[in-house]
Amino acid sequence: MHVEQDRRRRTLKSLLWPAAQVLIGFAAGLVLAKTMSLPEEQIALIGTVITLVTWLTDEAVKLPSKQTRLGAVLHGSLRFLSLVGFIMALQSLATLNGLVA
């Protein structure tokens, strides 16, 4: 019985962590885009560059395997930063197109 509860808890934790990362990354991207005192075009460019650099780093640089603790942290951090940049770019482009006030 106790082993079953531990397994369920680990499964729930493994599902909630990526969801939390997405929510935090989404919020961080919106907050950064809204608080920067730059023109929307520059914020969109910064967000795009962040997304491209993190994606290229993940693809081109030899990182530890995702199965190791360090590798999981590095790959997770890169995905998080890429999401933040992507949301920054999307929010700025939405503002430029009159979709967001």
Structure in a nutshell:
This protein is mostly helical. It has 3 helices and no strands. The protein starts with a helix and ends in a 5-residue tail after the last helix.
| Rg over CA atoms | 17 Å
The SSE order reads: HHH
* Total of helices: 3
Overall, the morphology is: flat
- Range of strand content: under 5%
**Main beta-sheet strand count, sense and barrel state:** none
What descriptive keywords fit this protein?
101 residues, mainly alpha, flat
Notes on the protein architecture:
The protein has 101 residues and is mainly alpha-helical. It has helices at residues 2-35, 40-60, 69-96. Helix 1 (2-35) packs parallel to helix 3 (69-96) and helix 2 packs antiparallel against helix 3 (69-96). The longest helix is centred in the first third of the chain and has 34 residues, at 2-35. It is flat and about 55 Å long. It starts with a helix and ends in a 5-residue tail after the last helix.
Question: Topology, pairings included?
Answer:
Blueprint: H1 2-35, H2 40-60, H3 69-96
